[in-house]
Amino acid sequence: MDAKCIAKLQETIRDLCSQGAADMVLDLEEVSKIESCAVAGLIECVSMLRKQGGDLSLLGLKTESLQVFDAARLLSIFAVRESNEAAPVE
Q: Could you tell me where the beta strands, DSSP code E, fall in the chain?
């Protein structure tokens, strides 16, 4: 996930928020690497959704990405799920 990808995602989330959407799940199962600019963009996406009264759940984070999120103390910001039916990972 790079700057171009996160810019498109932010645009999509803005559009969905303008239509009243608030809670979203982002499936990252096929994402092998998340660049730092994309992490910053994901934080902005969470902020947009929380202003709507919702949240962003991350689904299928690879172990390496999960460790980076944990080391950067970002797991307190994001709801992380192992599968679509699973409760958030704590």
A: 23-27, 55-59, 79-81
Query: What's the pLDDT tens digit per position in 22-49?
Result: 999 999 999 988 998 999 999 999 999 9
What is the domain class of 3-81 according to CATH? alpha beta
Distances (CA, A) of 8 to 15, 38, 63, 68: 11, 11, 25, 23
* Structural contact between residues 62 and 32, judged by C-beta atoms closer than 8 angstroms: yes
- Is the full-model pTM beyond 0.85? no
Sign of the alpha-carbon dihedral angle for 33, 73, 3, 7: positive
Residue 55 structure tokens: 């949240």
Spell out the domain ranges in the chain. Answer: 3-81
